[in-house]
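Sample intake sheet
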Amino acid sequence: MTSAKVEKGPEEPPAAAADTTSAEGYQRALGARQIQMIAIGGAIGTGLFLGAGKAIAKAGPSLVLAYAIAGLVIFFIMRALGELLMYRPVAGSFSEYAREFVGPFAGFVTGWTYWLFWVVTGITEVTAAAQYMTFWFSIPQWVSALIFTVILYGVNLISVKLFGELEFWFSMVKVTAIVGMILICAGILTLGFSDAGDTASVSHLWADGGFFPHGIKGTLMTLQIVMFAFLAVELVGVTAGESKDPKTVLPKAINTVPWRIAVFYIGALVMILSVVPWTEFSPDVSPFVEAFQKMGLGLGAGIVNFVVLTAALSSCNSGMYSTGRMLRDLALNGQGPKVFTRLTRSGTPLVGTTVSAALMLVGVWINYQWPGDAFTYVVSFATISGMWAWIMILISQLRYRRLADRGVLPQSSFRAPGAPYTSVFALAFLGLVIVMMGIDKDARISLYCAPLWALILGVSYLVLKARNPANKAFTGR
C-alpha cells in the first residue's frame, strides 16, 4: 500500500495547475484569510457558549484547568494532522490517511463516522438556531429551522468561495463577541463599574469552595463537555483540497491553536468567573448570558443571543460543507454510492450535500417530537464520533512517522514537535475521556450506540467488498 503511494508522487499536477484545481477535482478557492477564520471559528461554538454552564456546575473554577490540559492535547492532535497534511494535502483527509496508514476498513469507518458526526451536529445546531430566534420573534420553530437549512444549503451549492466568505463573517462575530466580553470584564475588575463592580475579584477563582470545589473527580467528569467544545477544530483539514496554497496557509492556521485556546476559552472563562462567582451560574443557561445579566448590562442578553445564533449557524454551515466532501471521498474510493462523486460546475459535491441537508431536516422533526434529554444524548454521540477522527489522525501520524524515518515515505515539511511521545499522550488522554463518558450516566448512551454503528458499518463494508473484491479501497493495495 505504501509503495503505491510513493510511486504516485511524481504524477501530481504541476504547481501552476494546482493553484486552481486540486487532484480531487475541487476548486482551490479558499484563501489565507478564510482558512484562518475557519480555523478560529472551529474552536468557538455552542459547546463553549452553552455547554460551559453545565461544566461550571460540575467543576467550578477548575474547569479552566480542564480546558487548558484539553487544549494542549488538541494542539498535539492538530500538529499531528498538520504533519500528514504537508505530506499529502487532500480533501477528505481523515479517511484518506486512515485508509493509507491503518487499513481500508479504518478509512471506511472514519469517513462514514465523520459524516455522521456532522449530520448529528447539524441536527442539533439548526434546531438550536431556531430556538434562539424565538428570543426576538414569535414564529414556529420549524419555520426558522427550514429557512436556515435552505439558506445554508444554497450557500454550499453556489461555491466553496461563498461558503468560506460566510464562515469568515460568522467567525468574525464570535471572535469579536468574546474579545468584547474579555475587555468588559477586565474593565469591571480594574475600574469597578456595573452592578458587579463591587464584588468582582480574581479571588472568586479559589475563594468560593476552593479551586476544586467538587474534587478532582468533578473536573474529570467535565472532560466530555470540554472535548465537545473543541470538536470541529480539525475542520481545517477538510479544506486541504480547496485551499489556494495549502503548504503555506494550513501550517499557519494550525500554529494559531494555542493562542486561540488561551484567549477564547481560558481567558474568557477566567474573566467571567472572576466577575461573577461560579456558584451563581445555572447549568441550563449560557454562562455568558448570565454574566451580562449579573453585570446589569441590559443589551447583553440580546447581543449574546445573536452571537450564539451565529455560532449555531456557523456549525451547521461547516457541517454541510464537510458532509458532502466526506461522502464524495468515500464514493471516489469505492466505499460509497457513485452518485456522490458528482460535482457542480463550481466544484461542489451536489448529491452528498443534498442528502446531508435532507437528513438535517429530519433531525429538526426528531428534536420537535422528543425534546428534553435529546440534546444531551446527541452531544454525547457527537463527541464519541468526533473523537474517532482524532484517534485515527494520531494513529495515522504515528505510522507515517515510522515510515518516513525509515525513508519509505518522504518527510513532511511540518513535523509534529515531540512526536511520537505527544501523540501517544494525546491517545491516552482520549482514552481517559472515553472512560469518564462510561462513568457519566448521561453520556453513557453514546457508548451503547457506538457498537451498533460499528455493526452497521461492518456489515456494509463486507457487502461492498463482496461486490468489488478487486477494488483497491478494500484490498489495501
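Comment: The mean pLDDT is 81. Residues 300-332 form the longest helix (33 residues).
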